[in-house]
Amino acid sequence: MKIGKSGTLLAEIIRAHGGMELWQRYEKVEATIVSGGGLFPLKGVPQSSEPRRMTVWLHEERSSVFPYGAADQRTMFTPERITIEKLDGSVVAERYGPRDSFAGHQMNTPWDALQRAYFNGEALWTYLTTPFLLAMEGVCVEEIEPWREDSEEWRVLRASFPGSIETHCLVQDFYFDEDLRLRRHDYSVNIAGGFAAAQLTSDYVETNGIWLPTKRRAYARGPDQRPIPDLLMVSIDISDVTFS
User: Fold this and answer.
1) How confident is the model at residue 5 (pLDDT cuts 50, 70, 90)?
2) What's the rounded Cα separation, in Å, for the pair 175 and 157?
3) Which domains does the chain have, with CATH numbers?
4) What residues contact 41, with CB distance under 8 A and at least 6 apart?
5) Average pLDDT rounded to a whole number, residues 170-186
6) pLDDT at residue 62, as a whole number
7) What is the predicted pLDDT for the residue at 2?
8) What is the DSSP string of 38-84?
């Protein structure tokens, strides 16, 4: 983590979300998610509106969603490997070096089941560990120009991620309001042709002492850097959150 003004802001943001000491006590977070949006039909993998249970490990890049593809199946994501497996651990399908399978992909290139599982795994891991992941080893943050949103001014942290972390892209912007709550998250979806996205976040809740937004709406981002309301790419509603 870069020190100085940006480091001070990040420390304040982390305190506003429950604090690093409390975060370090927990190993994982589980949550119910319902997702949708235009990206999945575009990829040939329409998203069911049925709720699923997401598990994210907090101090290693690892996540799982259940059910996936069948009532007795789940995924298991790490940067090195994505699998679809039975609940007893037997492997249904797997792929090593999963990011390599997206080489040459554009926004409308179809995904297979493992690619969709990979996207879910890296995306939800990023979202459910924010903002604490910004203090992880190898992540550099700097405060850039603030953003005016109607009558509000949001402070913006630009994060540069190391290649060892699988996430949407290496440089991402995180917008925080006067209460240091995350309001927006900008990135490029490299595994889908690198299209620019602006994800709006809201509906904060506190669970086990940790604060997080439970409503996420990712829109295509226009040349004016604003979300395009008619192009909702991904929606995620989060509930029943438990840290353990």
Assistant:
1) low
2) 7
3) 5-243 (2.50.20.10)
4) none
5) 98
6) 98
7) 38
8) THHHHTT-PPP-S-EEEEEETTTTEEEEES-SSTTEEEEEETTEEEE
